[in-house]
Structure formats: C-alpha cells, structure tokens
Design brief:
The protein is an alpha/beta fold. It is built from 18 helices and 13 strands. The longest helix has 17 residues, at 294-310. Bound molecules: adenosine-5'-triphosphate and magnesium ion (MG). Adenosine-5'-triphosphate (ATP) binds next to helix 7, strand 12 and helix 14.
Amino acid sequence: MNAPFHARAGSRDPFTAFVCDDATADMLRPVAVEHGWSPEKVNKGGLRNAVQSLSVSASPNILFVDLSESGDPLNDINALAEVCEPGTIVIASGHVNDVRLYRDLVASGIHDYLLKPFTVDQLRDTFAHAQSILSGPRGEAQVDKPHVMTAVIGVRGGVGASTLATSLAWLLGEKAHRSTALLDLDVHFGTGALALDLEPGRGLTDAIENPSRIDGLFIERAMVRANERLSVLSAEAPINTPLITDGTAFFQLQEEMRNAFESTVIDLPRQMLIQYPHMVHDAHVAVVVAELTLAATRDTIRILAWLKSNAPQTKVIVVANGVPSGGALEISKKDFEQSIERSIDIVFPEDGKLAAQAAKLGKPMAEVANGKMAAPFTQLSNMVLSHASEDGAAAETKTAAKAGAAKGSMMNNLKSMLAKKAA
Ligand SMILES: Nc1ncnc2c1ncn2[C@@H]1O[C@H](COP(=O)(O)OP(=O)(O)OP(=O)(O)O)[C@@H](O)[C@H]1O
Ligand SMILES: [Mg+2]
C-alpha cells in the first residue's frame, strides 16, 4: 500500500466494508468475526456509500470496498482518496478483469484488488496481509522520526546485557512509540526471543547463510513480532555449527532495519564486537553493561578505550547492573568510577525476584518492573533518546578531548587501586 492512504494507523475502527451484493456480504461477515471485527461493519452500498460515509466519519484501519457498481472505478477510487484518512488500508473488489486497471488502482493507493468471484481463502489472505502491514514495522515507519541505533555490550558474560537490551527495545516500542527492531547477535545462545516468549525462527540463520537475500521484504518476513511496535531477529543456531560469516549479513541487516524501523537495539556480545567491529560504527549510542567486580572493571576500561578509538562518534552510557544492596560489593561504586575515569550513568539494583518473575512471564524486565526498579529503565530509554538527538558535533569534540587526556592512564589507575587493595 502506498500514498495517499498510507501513513499512520491511529485508534479507529479496525474494519469497515461497503459491498454491493448479498453474496459478498455473506462471505465477508464470518471472516470479519474470525478477525474479531463486528459483522455489522459490513454495509451495503459499494463505493458510493463508502465515499459518503467516510466524508462524515473517521476512516477505519482496513476498508473493504466493492467497485462492482462503479462506472469509472479509477476515478471513483480517487474520490475515495479525498475523504479517506491516511493510514487506511483499502482492499477493493470488482468484476473488471483488466491488469491495467489493477495497476492503476495499486498506483493510486489500493492495497489489493480481489477479482469477483473470489474465494473465502483469498479474502482471508488479503486481510492477513493487510493486518501484517498494520502491525508490522512498515505500518508506522512512515512517521518522521530519525532512526536511533543502540548497541548493548556486556563487559563480561552474564552481567545482564541481554536483559537490558530486550528491556530497552521494549521501552522504545511501548513507551517512546517507536517501531523497534531487536537484533540479537548472540547467534548460538541468544535469548532475545526466549525472553519475550517467542520462537526465534530461522530468520537470522537464513540471513547469515545468504546475505544477498536480505532486503526490506526479507526483514518484514523474517522478523518475529513481539508486539505492535517490537520485532525481534534472534537465533538458536545449532551448537555444533560454527558461525561462518564475514559480517556482511550483519551489516546488511543493520542497513535494512534502519530503513524499516524507527529504532534498532543490537544485543552485541563482546566476542562479536571483536570479530565485527563495524557493528558499532553506525550506532548512535553504546550501552556498556558492567557489574561491580574487579574483572568487570578491567574490561569496562578496555571496552571504553576500544569505543573511543573505534567509534568516537558513538555516545556511551555506562550501566552497572545487578548491584547488590548492602556491603557485599567486590568493588565499591566510587572505586569503579575512579578506575574507569568517568561516572556510572545508571545503576540497576540486584533484584532476583523481579528477574525470575520476568523470566516466568516471558516478559522483558522493564515491563514487569515497578516502583523503584522501574526508574532506571525509564532513565535508560530517556538517555538513549536524548543522546541520539543531541548535537553530535559538540559531543564529539568533548569526547575527543577527554579521550586525549585520559589515554593510557585508566589501566594505571586500576593497577594502583588493585595494589592499594592488596596492601
Ligand atoms: N538486575 C538484576 N538483578 C537480578 N538478576 C538479574 C539482573 N539483571 C539480569 N539478571 C539475570 O541475570 C541473568 C543473566 O542475564 P543476561 O542473560 O541478560 O546476561 P548477559 O550479559 O546477556 O549474558 P551472556 O553473557 O550469556 O550474554 C539472567 O538470569 C537475568 O534474569
Ligand atoms: Mg546475552
């Protein structure tokens, strides 16, 4: 479906039909019911009635219109375009079997043309496709929001990077109303789909095996939908199969996701960062997830330094996850910050109960969190969005200046801290 009908679907009636004969009405009503739509939305009167009715009422998400009684279908469809609000998916039907008419109708914004007599299965297919467009990435992607790409990197295994990546993607969809893609690059052990109670499907595996197939249509088909504004590409590749790719597939996926969605969150395991450094080049924001341990301090230092030299334009958010309350810390927040020579931006307390509850429900932790635990999640998504919209040039200069000053000293700092501890 293209202009002029296609822009944004709001909260309107899901479905309305205007048909010319009883047979079509009788076929439509039960199919409408199957979709949860009211059978009363199937009106008699065809295109003329549709134009009249829509000139005084809101347009539905899906409009079925019968052109059988129309003398000049193309002209009449253009009259419909004038009263139909953007976002409506229009399905037309009629007796005229002419490919030129079909092409002209599609060019003027019709989603599909069902030639009469059509079967109930053809009708179902058309509705299914219309619905997938409404709920899919392209349903709302026409809105002018600049794309925001975020890479989430855990400095050590198990620090909660995937938990935060899934939560961030969910928040960007649900709270920031952005169509969002979650790209889980932990190809063998990814939990992006699992955490959302979904089957990962073969999408990512197919993409890696066959990067030349990756295009907009591939993305639309291969991604698994978690909800209206969140789609996931994840895999559980067999663990006897090594990952063999030069990274082209990942680059292509990133590119296509940028076109199809308003935000992309990449769960980027640190080994993948080493293997495919280009994955962060285009990221606006990198969320570096750490825990307050010595090993994580060392690797935060290393990853921050890597980001500074390999992706200086990427804004960095440092997160400490699973921070226990009380004194059971391997390293204090203050010492951690001193060693990494910057402050932690967001602290996520340890909350095993919440983590278990999220896992049991198959929901992202951010969705289940409330009260005190909800605050850092909101902070994370706000920070990602504000970093992405900041004046890049000013921030870059600042980062470069800081990088110069800090060069080489962070490791010394950690070493002296370790020496202090040992003494
Ligand atoms: N703040 C938290 N409090 C308690 N448990 C948490 C917290 N954050 C994450 N977890 C739990 O920690 C475990 C590991 O999380 P997750 O899989 O997100 O880590 P990861 O860094 O992606 O690990 P991997 O290195 O395997 O990719 C999960 O069981 C998750 O529920
Ligand atoms: Mg992970």
